């Protein structure tokens, strides 16, 4: 019976996670270093506070991020461990694998086909502030108020008015409102998530947008751009003619197919229909890589309502988004997302900013044994979430935590109390950890979990 309950619980978690993520371009989601940052710091030593998170010290009323102070409230759940990552600026380090990949993406959009009268039509933006409002992160992209992706269990909130962006799409409306018609926006994004080799609370995305004027679309289609009294269909929005949607979608697919070939070389591709709140129709682009179909990016024709609100009501456009870690892990053969934060010269020396992309392949420099530990506890607080637990693990164990898995879950038939058992895989990427060292970390984790998450250890 317990196994059946675990299966049902796991299924519900998978469905909820899928619903939450359908509002984002697909990325490697995103522990943390014990070193403190000179330009970003938290005034609290707790692991966070607020709804869906761990409860911080109520005496610490202010959170300091990137030189700004934010008053805590019941939504605050940003951990000091995440704040410490905010000034890493990996994309500005020329020989970092993420920076190398981004440079090749930006170079593609500087090619002759994207130049008008000798000038590149795409501008590149890497320095947009990662602190945004929920309006920027959700409302501006038509994400419903009741959508599960807004939950504090999936996002890092500074308070009810500010949060760390969960995707670079949060800057779409801002950049369009400034008058830009074509741009690439890249940066670090933040999501609360599980702990494994492909997820990290801080990761990086690249967003691309291109808009077309009525005259440009007329030249592409020879017909009207906007529809009158039309209904939405799988092929187009209610405000677009089907020829407009087809023309914009065709330009999008041609552009992104070219980007994939620029990065991977000649490769078999396929387009899969999907759903995003901010584009319609929408697709995911997959490639056949080493015998398996791999999802590379999400994209679609931008919802006209977004453009209208941004002052571009006389234009139509497309947008795409991709996760840099996701692609870099595939292109370079990097097996663990934690390596992107490594300062080990055995890792960093393998990447040269001027090397051809196809020549860069990661060579594992060591393999250290894992150390597994389990933790079990009773849950009485309805606000508990698995992501709250993984945040505590990251805060206590840092990057020694390689994987966290829920291995048992059940509800007591008489008391109705819920129980969780997690298995934590500890492993260093650059040394052998001792059982004594991990025992100390595990004991600190048990104390912190009990205190911060208000659970009863078993």
Task: Describe the structure in your own words.
The protein has 458 residues and is α+β, with helices and mostly antiparallel strands. Among the domains are: 90-130 and 165-332, 2-Layer Sandwich (BirA Bifunctional Protein, domain 2); 366-458, 2-Layer Sandwich (Alpha-Beta Plaits). It has twelve helices and 17 strands. The strands form five sheets. It has a seven-stranded mixed sheet. The protein is globular and about 70 Å long. The chain starts with a helix and ends with a strand. 42% of the residues are buried.
The helix count comes to 12
Q: Any guess at the CATH architecture of the domain at 90-130 and 165-332?
A: 2-Layer Sandwich
What's the CATH class of the domain at 90-130 and 165-332, please?
Alpha Beta
Low-confidence parts lasting 5 or more residues at pLDDT below 50?
A: 1-21, 29-59
The succession of helices and strands, N to C, reads: HEEHHEEEEHEHEEHHEEEHEHHEHEEHE
Number of distinct beta strands:
17
**What would the CATH topology of the domain at 90-130 and 165-332 be?**
BirA Bifunctional Protein, domain 2
Average of per-residue pLDDT values: 87
Cα distance spanning the termini: 20 Å
What Rg, in angstroms, do the CA atoms define?
23 Å
CATH-level-4 superfamily name of the domain at 90-130 and 165-332: Bira Bifunctional Protein, Domain 2
Helix content: 25-40%
Provide the β-strand percentage band: 15-25%
Structural class: alpha+beta
Largest sheet: 7 strands, mixed
Shape: globular
What descriptors fit this protein?
24% strand, globular, 12 helices, alpha+beta, seven-stranded mixed sheet, 458 residues, 28% helix, BirA Bifunctional Protein, domain 2, Alpha-Beta Plaits
């Amino acid at each position: 019976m317990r196994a059946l309950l675990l299966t049902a619980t796991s299924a519900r978690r998978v469905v909820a996670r899928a619903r939450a993520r359908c509002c984002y371009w697909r990325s490697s989601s995103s522990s943390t270093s014990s070193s403190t940052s000179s330009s970003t710091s938290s005034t609290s030593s707790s692991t966070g506070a607020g709804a869906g998170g761990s409860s911080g010290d109520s005496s610490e009323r202010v959170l300091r991020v990137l030189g700004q102070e934010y008053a805590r409230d019941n939504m605050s759940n940003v951990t000091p461990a995440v704040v410490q990552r905010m000034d890493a600026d990996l994309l500005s380090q020329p020989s970092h694998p993420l920076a190398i990949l981004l440079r090749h993406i930006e170079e593609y959009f500087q090619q002759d086909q994207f130049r008008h009268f000798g000038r590149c039509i795409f501008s590149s933006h890497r320095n947009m502030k990662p602190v945004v409002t929920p309006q920027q992160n959700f409302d501006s992209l038509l994400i419903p108020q009741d959508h599960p992706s807004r939950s504090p269990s999936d996002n890092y909130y500074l308070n009810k008015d500010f949060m760390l962006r969960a995707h670079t799409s949060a800057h779409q409306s801002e950049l369009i409102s400034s008058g830009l018609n074509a741009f690439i926006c890249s940066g670090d994004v933040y999501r609360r998530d599980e702990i494994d080799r492909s997820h990290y609370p801080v990761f990086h995305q690249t967003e691309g947008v291109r808009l077309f004027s009525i005259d440009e679309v007329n030249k592409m289609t020879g017909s009207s751009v906007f529809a009158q009294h039309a209904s939405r269909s799988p092929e187009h929005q209610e405000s677009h003619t089907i020829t407009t949607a087809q023309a914009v979608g065709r330009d999008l697919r041609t552009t992104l197919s070219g980007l994939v070939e620029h990065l991977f070389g000649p490769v078999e591709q396929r387009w899969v229909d999907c759903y995003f709140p901010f584009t319609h129709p929408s697709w995911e682009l997959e490639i056949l890589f080493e015998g398996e179909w791999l999802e590379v990016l999400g994209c679609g024709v931008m919802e006209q309502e977004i453009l209208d609100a941004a002052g571009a009501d006389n234009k139509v456009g497309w947008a795409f988004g991709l996760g840099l870690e996701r692609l870099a892990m595939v292109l370079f053969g990097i097996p663990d997302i934690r390596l992107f934060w490594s300062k080990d010269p055995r890792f960093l020396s393998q990447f040269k900013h001027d090397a051809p992309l196809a020549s860069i392949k990661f060579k594992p420099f060591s393999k250290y044994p894992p150390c597994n530990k389990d933790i079990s506890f009773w849950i009485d607080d309805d606000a508990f979430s698995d992501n709250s637990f993984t945040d505590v693990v990251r805060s206590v164990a840092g990057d020694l935590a390689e994987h966290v898995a829920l291995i048992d879950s059940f509800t007591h038939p008489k008391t109705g109390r819920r129980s969780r058992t997690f298995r934590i895989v500890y492993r260093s990427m650059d040394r052998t950890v001792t059982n004594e060292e991990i025992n100390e970390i595990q004991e600190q984790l048990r104390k912190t979990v009990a205190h911060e998450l208000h659970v009863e250890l078993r």
